[in-house]
Amino acid sequence: MDVRDTYRHNVLTSGHRACSGCGEAMAARMVTDIIGPDAVYINATGCLQVFTTHNQQSAWQAPWIHSVFANAAAVASGVEAAMRANGKDTPVVVQAGDGGTFDIGLQCLSGMIERGHDVLFVCYDNEAYMNTGVQRSSSTPHAVRTTTSPPGRLSEGKHHLKKDVISIIAAHQMPYAATATVAYFPDLKAKVEKAMSLKGPRFLQVLSPCPLGWNHDAAQTIQVSRLAVETGLFPLVELEHGAVTGVMRLARQRPVEDYIKLQGRFKHLFGSKGGAVEIRHLQALADARIRRYGLLEADTEWTTDTANQVQRRGRGGYARVSKGESQ
Amino acid sequence: MSRLSFEAGSSVAYHTGDWRILRPVYKDKWPPCSQTCPASEDIQAWLALASDDQWQAAWRKLTERNPFPAVMGRICYHPCELSCNRKHLDSAVNIHGVERYLGDLALEQGWRHQPLNKKQQTQQVAVVGAGPAGLSCAFQLVRRGYPVTVFDARSAAGGTLHSGIPAYRLPKNILRREIDAILALGIQLHLDTRIGEQRSAQSLQEEFAAIFLAIGEQQPRIYTGNDQSGHSIMSGVDFLRRINQGEPVKMPRHVAVIGGGNTAIDAARCARRLGAEVTVVCPQDPHGTQHGHPGAEMPASFEEVIQAEAEGVRLSYRLGVSRLVRSGEHLSGLQVARVDQLHDRHGQFAPKLFEGTEEFLSAGLAIFAIGQEVDWHGLERLRDSEDSNILIGGDAAGKPRFAATAVGSGYQAAMSIIACLTGIPPVYEQHEKAEVSINDLNLSYYPQSVRQEGGVVADRLHDFDEVITGLDKTAVTHEAGRCLSCGVCFQCDNCWHFCPDAAVIKQDAGYEVDNDYCKGCGICAQECPCGHIDMVT
What ipTM goes with this model? Predict the structure, then answer.
């Protein structure tokens, strides 16, 4: 056990091989430390699995299973059923990337939710297949450059739109589905805790910027994640049994240029006529999402300003490591 | 361990620290408020304690450098707020409001100053002048165990704080109680003792191991035009002293005050309270009209000018007195003219008037507040001494003439005296730290908030009661909480939450970077709200 830090369990600890500034490692560390080490983690194939278990060295300090790409939800269903058969109520948590959720794992996930397994499914959404070299996924936003959607004479990056997976999931009439991102820790914490307090299938989509694939400075991970929310491109919402029950109100709407100009994956949009059209298209998409969820006028506990606000001695942390464990 | 090792186990065996180019370093900086505070108060520290409801600790931190919080919270021109980084975000923190609240709370609760150590020194120190500089020096020395005797020529302690500042800005009982709290540390005070008259300078030199001269500038500069003698002319200093000592002063209907400094404004507001129609003849331009030429704008505090105007004081700018107009003995007014140049070619203040622009200003009393000088009478021997154990401070040491500067000067004098007496070089506890600008802060983490101001008493021309009311507890907590804590960690946990590599380890107080694993992404430095973290090679 690595117990350098007595203020958090470090379920995902040091020595993993994620790139410098990795948003997914950051998100996974937050989520798993809020849930704690007394859970079974099932990890679909993807960046998170690859960089945390390199050369037979595991960065996980909790029970952890690697499934194949497609069947993480199915494995979790089995683990949950086995727990239930043995009279245990250990939480079961699936972690998958957007590939393992939006594309390859979608039918297993749908089945798991339909059967009502008591599992939390966390999708770390970095909007492409990053560990294999940045190929487009159905989560990749419109007009993004990836290695399989290169911009050029006939194209301004990915032609299709980002799949609205949270609506697909929520359409299962399940207890809880929410979106979160790394920039707003108090919001992320409240959502994970709410999800853990409920029974049945639950789903969390956590936007996790990728400095390599999104081509932004490693130090800008949080800023990019914050701007995704503040522009309206990534609304933070909560859905219960299919109905929207909570959103994070935007204190002010920022233009999408603020968000895309930080990222190399949108660089081709600047300085060309076609690019300008796509920027307008992205702005229209952001506006549509803001209208759809009422992000500017919703009556909410938090706004993007107050969720950001810092406080002396922090705004909540994780369960502390007990003395018995640290010895 | 080699990168290619295949030994099964925990990944902590693999040190990712060697991927790094830059590493984060936690470093306390020196916020601009403290940097500009003439008394070098650690403002951020006591604001932090106040926002945490640790009121007494906040007061103790504040009085480490300034034993006059209730006084300075009222009268200081607060350069701290002018430099506050928060002004770029919304408006500066109301630092003086919090300071005043802490000072008043200490007086109300009867908190007592504590000596810093129990060790009693034997070398006696004399302080000449019981003003802010002298008392500040005595306070620092006596807290460090030195027996101090303070001499003052007047019959009340406080120096210019007592004789120069009207009661509507600084109530006399606040000043007296704050001075009493300082004297309670065991300072001997001899009032009505002018060195050179009641006591000789020589006897002081023989009796005391060190002397601090903080005699202020009490000698008014006099008008050198025509007819300087005669009735109906007064200096601002004398006028204020008489008002502050409660002497009756008869007011004519029209009063002219000449000068653009705080003494002029104080005299004008006092005369207004005594029922006169007051015009200030100010040689300089108004505030905010001469950017980049601070010497061309009137030196009085802007807030005081606003108050004076609200009270009906007329201000006429860029005017100088060309001569006094008398009918017999009686002063009927002033002949004033437009000012051409304020300074001569040596940079000395010497207003030159335009010919042909004269106008008449009716006045039965002319109050000249055109500066003060040091009255060295009887102290020349000490002034000219080459001994290193005789120091000069406060206003007597030169400009700028602000109470907070005097307090800071008293602190430095105390440190120098201790250095001189012990032979150990002075420790000023001065930070050698980088300043933090607005660009070093991450403003995403500070939502806008409205500055709370003290109230203004509406009906105020009939008496000398205090004009500005203090903040209440809620407002003070709000203001202290608005501090951005520039450059000083307040444990918001951002670096710790956001580290993707578990390389930031939370400690009971603060954080530590585990350089074995830090990949140097720089997120901690980028997301540190207050600019506490630097990325270094």
Answer: 0.95
